[in-house]
Amino acid sequence: MREGNLQAPTRHPIDWKNPDFYDEASAFKEMERVFDICHGCRRCVSLCQSFPNLFDLVDATDDGEVHGVAKADYWKVVDQCYLCDLCYMTKCPYTPPHEWNLDFPHLMLRAKAIKYRKGEVGSGEKFLASTDKHGQFAGIPVVVQVANALNKTKTMRKVVDKVLGVHPTAWLPELADSRFRWSADATGPAQVVTNGTHSRGKVAIFATCYVNYNEPGIGHDLIKVLNHNDIPYVIVEKESCCGMPKLELGDLDGVEEHKNANIPVLVKYAREGYAILSAIPSCTLMFKQELPLMFPDDEDVQAVKAAMADPFEYLIARNRDGLLKTDFKNDLGRVSYHIPCHGRVQNIGRKTEEVFKLIGKSVKVQLNTVERCSGHAGTYGVKTPTHETALKIGRPVVKAMAKDAPDYISSDCQLAGHHIAQGMDLQKLPPARLKHPLSLVRHAYGME
Predict the structure, then answer these.
(1) On the chain, which terminus has fewer CB atoms closer than 10 Å, C or N?
(2) Would you kindly state where each structural domain of the chain is located, as residue ranges?
(3) What's the count of helices (H) and strands (E) in the chain, helices before strands?
């Protein structure tokens, strides 16, 4: 038996249709096995609150072993896991193909699914995970103005805390005056499709809930970059939430509903030779990893997986093909760039950083890259029970991002970016402008 895994981690399909998947006794037995291995290793103690909670529980037993931990206390570990996947991808030496076969995040997912199916998830959490529902008010002028104004008042935030469990001081995204899908041209002006060895020559944009309902400017910046590089694009005809918020809640049936809405639409673009781009890493990851593992025998899901790409993964592929324009005009100055967890676990390398360095060959860019979890993690960062913990997890990132007084802070995950900005404000660090990496690329090209 080897001490650790010397091969790249692989993943087994998620057997969520099997009735045993929801058997609590069976799940607890597997958790005890995995927790015992984690207790003996402890490499992941710095990643999130799940592992400190686990080790504190073990250390408080009479003999310092996992068998002494009450099964009811296992939920103190499960509830702190926000499925960032970093333990699996960057720390754990016992992931498959190692014979110990450890997949901590997907074991936590199993526990969350059991909890959800038992009816132990509150209505507030369910609503927070239903991004299509609260996003439907975006673009309705009077409603947007009133909702955004009310969400800034202490009185309304107390109500939101009581009803939805959202921390009164947590940053919340505003609703957009106009949805991305309403304000963007459905197709671009470029007509000539130039395929490369490493890249498809035309793009289908999966808008995502966040870009569509909250910050459509990110989508417009992507369009500007594509147009500048003469890449034909279309906006996906229709879309539903990617399903990541439902996954994080353990609502796997809800994930399947979104999959059934999205895949039949997206697979047409995949089979017509489009690269499918999503500007939110969690959404991209959902189609690249989680859905293919939940539906391993679905050929349409696998076809979408092959076509789905992070925007910067795509831009670097175009550059490798000699098809990306490098006529950058504007300096970016000092940029602190954060690599989000769901970007890292796509296993594509530091593609956004590569683009920033490419820009730096033509104009001034002083880049500071920070590769550590911000602590936001979707709804985890805004919920009342976990908001303060999320800020604590993000403190080292905030300090690292503030290094050298940057002109801009930036993250592929805009939610993480806002979380970092809030942390900088709380720590009374010099403020910096928050810009999505696509916005900075657009600026560097000289397109205002």
Answers:
(1) N
(2) 19-117, 180-319, 327-445
(3) 23, 8
